[in-house]
């Protein structure tokens, strides 16, 4: 069953989406928000892909591999960007992105 | 921090979205799919609302209360429909919907 | 047929989602980005609701009225915030939000 | 400006998402719903990707090319499946998928 088989990756995607959404909001609240533009943009993209991938896996979509491959790539980019910043929310987001990229790559 | 404060409800929404997405696919695979039309439709609506609510909470949206109120209502409707069927995926989905509705109501 | 009946509101939601998404990115690129935080947050919420409402109408969801009622409310809030700023992208976004709120209110 | 540059593809994605969502609901209402399972599944995937691609273009995302490439591929698959059925909603959906795939391929 798709739902059970894919559980680890679904949970990694959900955790990553939440970390990205939280990071985007936290970046907007920083005094140096002007330095965080790329991070906010990446967070928005990454959260969208992670939620789409999570749903595709839960439905056992025929396109799970291609979707997870793209999700891994966008998680990598978001981890790279978040990894450049010292804020806790960025560090936690980078960790969530790397964990999600790893699970998605195993699926793809 | 929005992300941490809302964690229980975010996790209930994510679990409910996955249960609904899985239930819709499993309903489509049943031999009595013609009896499962309303269930499939409810599952699709409920998964969409749960993922939107999850993201709104993670971002600490100004509209969290109104969104969670609507999510609770749609979870109730999905739980009622899934509760009419004997399939395991329907029963598990109804449970996830009820748990999510309860968390969303506490937030709203 | 849901799809045809709801066409005007679906198109208003799609146009509003695109205007909000564009406005959020354009706000991030402004030198006064620190003044645009609330606008960016509203844009993200509003785009999410508009896309969800558009899909619910296209599917002829049983929850169209409640979803469109919430969408109208969030469009109003986004129009108010965007209406405070002089940027072209904010003005166009406010117009799209008002048009969408009107269509959604007629549906609700 | 991303929003204007990408307008044709954004509109093709929005039209395709609406056609897919409508087709999935219309398939569920057919007496031969058991024959329409793959079509419904494809419709759900395709609508999700089209809405995500539409938003990514409106935001001028750094990942537009990869997202549109995947969207084109999923539109192709949905067009193939819908093209096998004689229902009007399937034919219109197949047309919308082909038009969207063409625009997305030009973007990718």
TrEMBL record, chains A, B, C, D:
Superkingdom in the source lineage: Bacteria
CDD domains: DUF326 (cd08026)
Gene3D superfamilies documented for this protein: 1.20.1270.360
PANTHER family xref list: CYTOPLASMIC PROTEIN, CYTOPLASMIC PROTEIN-RELATED
Protein name: Four-helix bundle copper-binding protein
């Amino acid at each position: 069953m798709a739902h059970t088989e894919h559980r680890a990756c679904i949970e990694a995607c959900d955790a990553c989406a939440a970390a990205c959404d939280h990071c985007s909001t936290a970046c907007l609240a920083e005094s140096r928000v002007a330095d965080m533009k790329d991070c906010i943009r990446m967070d928005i993209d990454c959260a969208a892909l992670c939620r789409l991938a999570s749903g595709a896996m839960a439905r056992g979509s025929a396109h799970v591999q291609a979707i997870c491959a793209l999700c891994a790539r966008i998680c990598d980019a978001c981890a790279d960007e978040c990894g450049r910043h010292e804020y806790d929310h960025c560090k936690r987001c980078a960790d969530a992105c790397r964990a999600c990229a790893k699970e998605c790559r195993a699926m793809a």
